[in-house]
Amino acid sequence: MTKETKNTKPRTRRKAASPCGGKKKTVPAKKGWGKKLLSFSFKCTLVFVAVMAIWGIYLDSKIQERFDGQIWQLPAVVYGRILHLAPGEAVTIDTLKRELDILNYKRVRNPSRPGEYSASKTRVEIIRRPFEFEDGPEQAQHVMISFSGEGVQSLKQLDSGKQMGYLRIEPKLLGTMESNTDEQRIFLPRERFPEFLVDALLTTEDRDFYHHDGVAPLAIVRALVVNLKAGRTVQGGSTLTQQLAKNLFLTRDRTLWRKAQEAYIAVLLDYRYSKDRLLEAYLNEVYLGQARGKGVHGFPLGARLYFGRPIEELSIDQLALLVGIVKGPSYYNPWRYPERVQERRDLILRMMMESGVISSGQYAEAAARKLGIQKSPSINSRQPAYFEQLTREIRERVGSQFNPESGLRVFSTLDPLSQSIIDKTVVKKVDQLKKVAGKNLEAAVVIADRQSGEIRAMVGGSRPGYAGFNRALNGSRQIGSLSKPAVYLAALSDPDKYNLASPLDDKPIVLKGNQGSEWKPRNYDRKFRDQVPLLKALANSYNIPTVNLGLAIGLGTVIDTYEELGVDPDQITRVPSLLLGAFTLTPMEVTQMFQTIASGGRKANLTALRAVVARDGQVLYRNWPKSSQTVSEQASWLTMYAMKEVVRSGTGRYLNSSFGWAGLAGKTGTTDNNRDSWYVGIDGREVVTVWLGRDDNTSTKLTGSSGALRLYADYIKARQPEPLTLNWPSELASVPYQVREGQFVTDCFSESKLPMWDPKGHWRKRCDKPDPVSWLQSIFN
């Protein structure tokens, strides 16, 4: 057979023989497509489950990391000074009522809840709010405060009937320190939220919150059907847990992928944490609007934004309004859409009535009320000048422990009443003075406690609420006649040579410099009086007697006195013109100088910071008011006596007609060409430094008396001064005198008396048992 023929034969497939001799094996046919699809789906499911498990583990770790640590970057919250009340304190009933009004206490007939008070002519009944002070929390206290003409008479706790030694009124919330976050909130634990707020929130937003596992499938389906029928999104199916998951971990993108993540995180949150813990987080996280360009989150801060009061004190209609805003803070803006907001509020109140939370009577009463919101959205009235000083001190004294986003509580020394009044006074008075001074008139004010040196208020410009160049801290200007009290104090520190009756020359003088220059000081009124007593020279701010006195005691002695008063001597040039204030200081530095004089020579470093407390209650810094005797008590007392004469009969006498009863002290200051107008006013409570001028250093046409003094007068009229009483120091004698031809003459039989520092008893001996010869000599002396 040929090869070709062999290849043409058909090939047959042999079946393999069974090794056991049984039936022969058949080769299985290929798998069908259904089985392949099932296998593929099974494998994909395994992969999906694995991916979801890994993703869930990752998300769970992120959730725990945030929830078990610090959920939010909480800003440092700043409070004002704490008002201390005790029997004998010089706090009047009007002052207390104004303080309570600033703190948004509600005046009622019969106080029944924290944040309420009633008042009569001599008594105030108050339920002091609970508050966590720097040294620990205090519960609400129901107290009756009785007043006499001199101040607080007694404190009585009404719950127990016991007399109290003191009572602290909680400080005003001033605001928060600047931080890098665009959110602001005040954290509050779950148990401190009103139950009505919680009930209203759950009723309107998530009725099954305590029953579902983070998501509510039926609610999602129901919302989907409603939205499909409407052709747009009109109803959401998210639970509070899903909303919390979105706010804390996700963006606001409306995508299915974001929705899936939201649901997954919600399930994990619900599995990991209790319902109350999640509700607490939501109550502090929910977005409720904007304030000063930053988001307001959480009901506690929302209550202050819309009502200016703590959340615990809001009525049911106000709480319902807050819950209504949750749906859309822009859409339900009560200042822009009051009718829309009232309709939403009343709907929530009706739902609460239908669910049995409130009665029909409560509903009718609440729905009849007005919205009751503040005039404008505000959490606080910022004091940028004061906050600048506060920030400086915090960074200096707390250092690396200060983090403006770690929830610190900062207790300052700011007096909200003084700050509020000076803010309004500056705006109003500067506007009036511009009619004389022209446009661009600026102002700066520093107010400090006379004894402790604690800064009570600060204004850095003519618009107190706006940040900018802080003239109170950084505006260094010539001080003019404000320098004179230091010169006279230096002289009075040497009682063997000088006293208030010492005659000073008031004659033309010419001082020559090293290079042939001449300086001819002159009095403001261009007059000369031959000689004037030291007391009159200071009271009327005469220049030539001051120069003669300063040269007599020595420039070095004067500069040393400035240093003892708290002024950096390096800022003072050793030339005779320093005696008339030809050197520059800031209003802050001027206040330090006069605080030392006003407190009897005890210098207390000015401070705005009282305490810094960490979120866990640890006190990071606490300032205990302290002072040191840097200049003579007797010389300071005599200088203050002379500054009282400034108000009684000198350059500050504008005040005497209205406040003669208060015994105020003060000193005017005017620089060349009326560039700077100064006044320092002192009452029993505060030292107030006022400066008026222009940033370009041109004339204001204002003297200290016609400018800064008038601003101070308006302030003290609104603030009401505390009488300035000076405790009589040792070694001071009251010496009888007469005034003859403008001179003080010793006259032991006169009813008029002048205080003298008499360490060796010479003045007392002169009039204790006067003999006829010495009496005649005193007349002709």
TrEMBL record:
Alphabetical keyword list: Antibiotic resistance, Carboxypeptidase, Cell membrane, Cell shape, Cell wall biogenesis/degradation, Glycosyltransferase, Hydrolase, Membrane, Multifunctional enzyme, Peptidoglycan synthesis, Protease, Transferase, Transmembrane, Transmembrane helix
Compartments in which it is found: Cell membrane
Domain Bifunctional transglycosylase second: residue ranges: 85-168
Transmembrane segments: 40-58
Domain Penicillin-binding protein transpeptidase: 444-682
Entry-linked Gene3D superfamilies: Biosynthetic peptidoglycan transglycosylase-like, Cytochrome c1, transmembrane anchor, C-terminal, DD-peptidase/beta-lactamase superfamily, Penicillin-binding protein 1b domain
Catalyzed reactions per annotation: [GlcNAc-(1->4)-Mur2Ac(oyl-L-Ala-gamma-D-Glu-L-Lys-D-Ala-D-Ala)](n)-di-trans,octa-cis-undecaprenyl diphosphate + beta-D-GlcNAc-(1->4)-Mur2Ac(oyl-L-Ala-gamma-D-Glu-L-Lys-D-Ala-D-Ala)-di-trans,octa-cis-undecaprenyl diphosphate = [GlcNAc-(1->4)-Mur2Ac(oyl-L-Ala-gamma-D-Glu-L-Lys-D-Ala-D-Ala)](n+1)-di-trans,octa-cis-undecaprenyl diphosphate + di-trans,octa-cis-undecaprenyl diphosphate + H(+); Preferential cleavage: (Ac)2-L-Lys-D-Ala-|-D-Ala. Also transpeptidation of peptidyl-alanyl moieties that are N-acyl substituents of D-alanine
The protein's name in its UniProt record: Penicillin-binding protein 1B
Source organism (scientific name): Grimontia marina
